[in-house]
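Q: Could you write out the predicted structure for this multi-component system? I'm mainly interested in how the pieces pack against one another.
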Amino acid sequence: MTDALLHVDNITVRFGGIVALDKVSLDVGRGSIQAVIGPNGAGKSTMLNVITGLYAVDGGAVSFEGERIDGRAPHTIGRLGIARTFQNTELFGEMSAIENVMVGLDRHHPYNLAIGMSHGPGYRRSEIAARREAGDLLALVGVADDAAVAAAALPFGKQRRLELARALATRPKLLLLDEPAAGLRAAEIESLNLILLNLRAEQGLTILLIDHVMALVMAISDRISVLNFGRKIAEGNPDTVRKSPEVIRAYLGEKGAHALGA
Amino acid sequence: MIPRLAIYVAGIAGFFIAPHYLAEYHLFQICLIAATALVVLGLVAVTGLAGQISLAQSAFVGLGGYGSAILATSWGVPLWASIPLTAFAVAFAGFVLGQLTLRISGHYLALATMAFTAIVQLAFIHSDPVTGGAAGMPVPPFRIFGLTLTTGRHLYYVILPATALLFLLVQNVMQSRFGRALTAIRQSETAAEAMGLNVLRYKAMAFAGSGFLGAVGGGLLASLSTYLDPAQFGITQSVYFLAVAVVGGMSSPFGAIIGSAMFILIPDLLQSFQSYLGLVFALLLLGFIVLRPNGLASVRLSRYLNLLSPRPAGGRR
Amino acid sequence: MLAQVLVSSVTAGAVYALIALGFVLIHKGTGVVHFGYGDQVMFGAYLVLIGQVVLGLPFWPAVVSALMLSALLGAVIYGGFMWPLRNASLLARIIASLALGTVLREFVRAYMGPNAWPFPFLLSQTAVSVADVLVVPANLAIVGVSLGVLGLLFLLFEKTIYGKAIMAACDNQVGASIVGVRVSTVFLAIWILASVLATLAGILVAPLLTLSPDMGLIGIKGFTAAILGGFNSLPGAVLGGITLGVLEAIAGTYISSALKDMISYSILIVVILVRPQGLLGGLTIRKV
């Protein structure tokens, strides 16, 4: 239990009278790809927002690499090595694709305000290094040709990939993906699967994702947790979950069965 | 590279040549434009770049003017030193004010900065022994290197280089990772925070910057006008600076210069209609905001002006 | 002594309440925070003055034409500025409402001069002693009108189909229009109503404050009152107004009269920071 990279321990989250999460626990092992699925309103995004510090817990705790992170500010959690993408793309629309990514990298090529004002020694070197690393990330997700295009002007599929590149820019240890496959065509989902598997294979990146799209979840997850009405109702590898009666009853239904059979 | 160098050279040459051809009145106006542009630059930084609505700018101007004048009058600190010293103090006040953004934004921030300006103005009016109260106070003449500078022609040699330097520094910051961070924060605070940026600190620093620039502008404007009247530092003036920023364009520092030039030169065109000046400015602001609400600057113009800015050797576009 | 302070403060409180009602009406109805509303209050009173001084009208006809003109002004503001900007950024909308207020203020300053004008009271100004406390009938009129307006608005929103349609349109524009409520008409009605209300408030307030172009600054006090009461609540606006009036009077008597205004503005900042939903309002949560 303690060598899990992320340890979510019995967390409860309430909004006014609604219990969004009810004593939910989850462990994410280092180097694993894990998914959280469940019907809309089950609490998946809430859990992500708790881990990244946007929401406070009303009970329980969240630990990362053995340290408590619940209650800490989002930017601190980001700096500890947790990165995320958003359900509604929160790209920096007016900035170009490469600038979007550079915002995440800048921390790793720092210079202080005095240098920033004077463009003094080290400025040019840092900027060039940051730009190069950003370019590499764009190439990784296949958006290299659109480096100079404003993020808001990109087609939807490329925007999602840019989001991924931006999250990777902070050099995270844990990557949280909020519905990364939503709105993507089958071919795009395929390439997303490959990118994520590669990231895990080559960089040892740990991934926790939320999604409804079974073509993604079933294909790459080592472990799946199922939430319904704020509670965890099943957990295990894709086969176990697929066959679990609770899960089928709660969620998978027609759509899931169809995707599985495809 | 070459066009940039040519423009710099032309600028410096123009700076030295102009006084030989221009009358005192015009040089005075140029000084006014430069000092106002500094104030508006502060607003461009906090509102245009960082996206934080601020109606506190005229309070910063007043604090800069009164602060440097009082240091000079009561403590004998010469203006060339008291203006920057006051500016740092006002920057700190701006940083504290910026902490408000932790809890509020949008309408409430506009209101809170309005209230701040109203409180500061009342403080000027009610602090008679120090500030001269409602009647105001005179500003001591600007002394440096043993010279006394009183006319536009003289102050020109201090105000313009100071303005150019500060504009250059701000332009540099905008292109650096700090400018990127602020632009990101303006567009999505949530994403910026998730990427490790301390959004509150950045916003507060933007306010601090607006305070610094407003105070320097205020000190220089005080030297030009030689008198401080508390009625000049109210909410109406904050809206005036906002108007200049909007009309000149908020996405580039040069918008501050363009807007200031327009607003200072327009009164000349309205010779006999001086009393309608306020109305004309307000109508200009209203017109611009209704006709171009999303292009709070001409994108094409600012891209052209980007030729003037240095680019890192990777090339950007 | 305290009783006297409180009774006198109710007048100021009623003034703030009346202005706060207008703010809340526009915000609750159309979602816009109108920073120029205080200037509309000032402008309304000036319309009466202009009718009298420039057109030579007697007082009551001038009042009636001012009310009608302000209804027109409300329509123009909505149609010419608020509706075109309905999808613009928050910053643009804030600037637009500031600009509108400034245009009104500067017009008045240029056309009628920057100095103050006297304005007649509607009722008697002589104080009457009631149970050892001095009461001024003119001030009672203000309180009465504030409560009356609140009552009317309450009836409108809670009891009539029109009021419910307005609330629907404000809560969910798409849903309301599907059900047959024409949202733009609703918003137009709100702006006209609020503008007439502003003139009414101006007529009551001008004799107290003396009429000058900067009288619109009272808008900030109205804002404070509205926020104190929870920015979306009509009864809250009245409650907030009275509360602000009382707090101000107490601070003015026991702390310092000259610093009364500074204290009010500080109250605004404190309330915004500590309890932005006011005394009666509720919190909203934004989903990511």
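A: Regarding packing and overall arrangement: The two ends of chain B are 14 Å apart (CA to CA).
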